[in-house]
Amino acid sequence: MLHRKLDRFCQEQRPVWVFLRDQQRWIEQALVVEIEGDLVTLRYDAEDEDELHSWEESVRLDSIGAVSTRLAYISRHAGADDLQTAEDCPEAERLSSSPGPVEPGP
Asked: Is there a contact between 64 and 2 (Cβ–Cβ < 8 Å)?
């Protein structure tokens, strides 16, 4: 099951957070680059003081304890005026709140 999930994340190029239980650490916002047998290759960036490092790490499938992915996010810095609401939707694409009359078909 985990193998299939990781394979899907690899195809979608979706960032994932991976917990390595043997090292008791998280790898954040990694891309699953390749899955070959029980070996998973992850690519990610890590910041250390003033430097940014890019890593490619291969881990065994059985050392992965958890995998998370972000579904959505909203910036905390966005003001109320920046959020899009139904009123921002073009008139032609809005859903009617009251059901209109149903016209009979031919």
From this structure: yes
